[in-house]
Design a protein that fits this description.
52% helix; Protein-Tyrosine Phosphatase, Chain A; 515 residues; UDP-N-acetylmuramoyl-L-alanine:D-glutamate ligase
């Protein structure tokens, strides 16, 4: 079989592999060109796939059977490796991804077919170049699909708007913040479910399209309360959601340096989070965390609605005192009167509960029902949840990815009661998407780690130097911290030091497009 017959077949198989990988990384970059290029250049532009694609150009240079055979072997090996590669966050085959993959394949086939028909001896070189620059082909496919995606999204948005407007009497509550919003959403739903039929946006459906999808697929006439988690990576993201759902109650859990890379300044983050409060009607209710510095000092509130503040360390209408932490959870007194108990750990979770109580009071949930619901609350998975196995306590804070939340997690680790001789261990890759503040924030994380635990394992290379520098400044001995290239490598190091009775904190977990 000739080169011009074998080669396109081999190339097509290889293209399917790398096209899926390219789309996966694009999805992890939130389909934003700027974030994708920050991942691609310079660290990933010379990747395994690119090197293998370059080797696929060999038959164009040495047009013989052995060149094709060599390329075939390389492709087969790469394909097998890709099938065995595991990602923490797998590719989600949404309809958008399916359309993007289909357009990508059509582009590849069209160019390859034209090359075979009209390019003669250069056909192999052109097909090889398609493989080498497959990421650019994928981005071109996305550009071609953009008008289609916009039209589809516009149809879905209008349909969701119709459904919301037809649902008279629905109480809509917005929850946003740099961190704590998912936990607050879930805790609030549990408390309000004592009286109301409640719908919440599931998982991380906190974008405009996620809210649209929730409304279209899950909102029913019998729902009385709709709790909407609102995420943002740039200004007006929250306003867009508010313009769709028109919340009557809004909670701002925290304002911090999350996504500083895209927001550019903390002032922009403040303005964006308070888009929720400023969207509330005059008879609405804003509930804000007075322990968050950037909430406490914000002067841009434009809504005339009532504002309630909650706090542990500062003053507020809902203030927790007499706080006691233990392995079984937390007890506290509200406003110097009623005592509450919960299985949840950490000041962050306590603040989330206070926000839930404030809204529950507004909506008439009786104190007894509130107490019962709060006592039954379970930690949100990967948000300072606790598990005990084989005598080892695991504090899982893997979904926390900001400095303030990490500080709270490390405070819990530091104060966690252990037996004599037992160790407190933290495993972390640090923080990303913090722009010019990233290095200093990770260095400060290292300093806190040095005073909060007995051993530390720093995962991945992204923030390694900054965290290690902070650990050294904090005074943790060199033999007490380890550097790991991956989570599996970290677990190998952990296995050498851990013993029953020890406590391990997993603090943050970077996406697969960070190494």
């Amino acid at each position: 079989m000739g080169t011009l017959v074998i080669y396109p077949i081999v190339a097509a198989v290889f293209f399917l592999m790398i096209a899926r990988y390219d789309i996966h990384m694009f999805q992890l970059s939130s389909y934003r060109y700027s974030r994708y290029f920050r991942w691609l250049v310079p660290g990933n532009i010379v990747s395994r796939n690119r090197i293998l694609a370059l080797l696929m150009l060999l038959p164009a240079i040495f047009p013989n059977y052995w060149g094709v055979g060599f390329a075939t072997g390389i492709t087969g090996g790469a394909w097998a490796a890709a099938l065995n590669e595991k990602f923490k966050t797998p590719l989600v085959y949404t309809m958008r991804v399916k359309r993007l993959l289909a357009t990508n394949i059509l582009l590849f086939v069209a160019i390859a077919a034209l090359a075979i028909l009209f390019a003669g001896k250069w056909a192999i070189a052109i097909i090889g170049a398609e493989l080498l620059f497959s990421n650019m082909l994928m981005l071109l496919a996305n550009m071609l699909n953009t008008p289609i995606e916009k039209a589809i999204n516009r149809h879905y948005y209008n349909d969701a708007k119709r459904i919301i407007e037809s649902h008279k009497g629905l109480i809509i509550i917005g929850v946003t913040g740099s961190f704590g919003k998912t936990s607050t959403k879930n805790y609030l739903a549990s408390v309000l479910a004592e009286k109301y039929n409640v719908l919440v946006t599931p998982g991380n459906f906190n974008t405009l399209l996620g809210v649209v999808r929730t409304i279209r697929e899950q909102l029913r006439p019998y729902h009385q309360v709709f709790i909407v988690e609102m995420g943002a990576k740039q200004k007006n993201d929250i306003k867009e959601i508010c313009d769709l759902v028109h919340p009557a109650i809004g909670i701002v859990t925290a304002v911090g340096e999350m996504h500083l890379e895209t927001f550019k300044s903390i002032e922009n983050i403040q303005d964006t989070k308070f888009e929720l409060i400023n969207s509330l009607p005059a008879d609405g209710l804003g509930v804000i965390n007075n322990d968050s510095e950037y909430i406490r000092n914000y002067k841009g509130v434009a809504s005339r609605c009532r504002i309630i503040r909650y706090a542990v360390e500062n003053e507020g209408e809902y203030k927790a005192s007499d706080v006691n932490y233990g392995a079984s959870g937390v007890s506290f007194t509200l406003n110097g009167g009623q005592k509450y108990t919960t299985r949840l750990l950490g000041t962050g979770n306590l603040l989330n509960i206070l926000a839930s109580i404030a809204v529950a009071d507004r909506l008439g949930v009786s104190p007894n029902k509130q107490h019962n619901a709060i006592a039954r609350l379970q930690p949100v998975e990967h948000r300072l949840s606790m598990k005990v196995a084989n005598g080892i306590t695991v504090l899982d804070d893997a979904y926390n990815s900001n400095p303030q939340g990490a500080r709270m997690g490390l405070e819990v680790l530091k104060n966690f009661k252990t037996g004599e001789g037992n160790k407190r261990i933290v495993i972390t890759p640090g923080f990303v998407e913090m722009g010019s503040r990233q290095a200093e924030a990770n260095k400060e994380l290292g300093r806190i780690i040095a005073t909060s635990c007995d051993y530390a394992i720093v995962v991945n290379v992204t923030n390694r130097d900054a965290i290690r520098s902070g650990i050294i400044e904090g005074g943790l001995a060199e033999e007490k911290y380890f550097l790991a290239d991956s989570l599996n490598h970290a677990h190998e190091q952990l296995a050498r030091i851990i013993r029953p009775g020890d406590v391990v904190l997993y603090e943050n977990d970077l996406p697969d497009n960070f190494k």
